[in-house]
């Protein structure tokens, strides 16, 4: 892997960079987000490329783990998460909700030991089309290792999606 400077991902650039990173996966993808939406609106056409990349990765045999926000209290977690998680689970992804009492502010995509995207981008139409968002892409091994440790601690404590 070539050395890369940390690269910023601004606003809807995520719609290009995230699918590129997902398409590089050979073994594992670990994703965390607060909101996970699937839209069929015409303005969400590019947004669907994120999900297409995930489904293609599953088809290549990549193990996909998704950790998202959950709360039994109305208004504390997006309703879209359950539907999106059910669809991705049906396609072969392992899905869990963050344990009760935790809020998912860590939006990450970890691709094998090669790439890490971390920042503010949720997988939601508003996040990817109109919000002020910023994330970072890195291939620095120590940072990826730390992100994976944090991810797995929360994955193990997470609620298994039925």
Please sum up the structure shown:
The chain has 162 residues and is an alpha+beta fold.
Task: Provide structural commentary.
The chain is 35% helix and 23% strand. With 162 residues, the chain is α+β, with helices and mostly antiparallel strands. The protein has a single domain, classed as Endonuclease Chain A (Endonuclease, Chain A, 2-Layer Sandwich), CATH 3.30.870.10. An 8-stranded mixed beta sheet has the order 1-7-6-5-2-3-4-8, sandwiched between helices. α1 packs parallel to α2 (48-59). 37% of the residues are buried.
Count of domain modules: 1
Structural class: alpha+beta
Q: List the strand order in the largest sheet.
A: 1-7-6-5-2-3-4-8
CATH structural fold name: Endonuclease, Chain A
Low-confidence spans? none
CATH architecture descriptor text: 2-Layer Sandwich
For this structure, what is the CATH class? Alpha Beta
Order of helices and strands: EHEHEHEEEHEHE
The CATH superfamily bears the name: Endonuclease Chain A
- Radius of gyration based on Cα positions: 15 Å
Taking the sheet with the most strands, its summary is:
8 strands, mixed
Shape: globular
Q: What's the tally of helices? A: 5
User: N- to C-terminal separation?
Assistant: 38 Å
Mean pLDDT reading:
87
Strand content: 15-25%
* Number of strand segments: 8
Task: Give helix % range.
Answer: 25-40%
């Amino acid at each position: 892997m070539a050395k890369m400077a940390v690269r910023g991902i601004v606003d809807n650039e995520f719609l290009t960079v995230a699918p590129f990173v997902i398409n590089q996966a050979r073994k594992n993808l670990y994703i965390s987000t607060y909101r996970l939406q699937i839209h069929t609106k015409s303005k969400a056409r590019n947004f669907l490329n994120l999900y297409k990349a995930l489904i293609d990765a599953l088809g290549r045999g990549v193990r996909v783990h998704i950790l998202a926000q959950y709360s039994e209290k109305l208004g504390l977690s997006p309703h879209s998460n359950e539907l999106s998680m059910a669809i991705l689970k049906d396609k072969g992804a392992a899905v869990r909700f963050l344990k009760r009492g935790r809020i998912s502010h860590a939006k990450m995509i970890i691709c094998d030991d090669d790439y890490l995207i971390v920042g503010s981008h949720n997988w939601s139409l508003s996040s990817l089309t109109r919000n002020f968002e910023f994330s970072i892409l890195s291939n620095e091994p120590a940072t990826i290792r730390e992100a994976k440790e944090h991810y797995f601690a929360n994955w193990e404590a997470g609620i298994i999606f039925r």
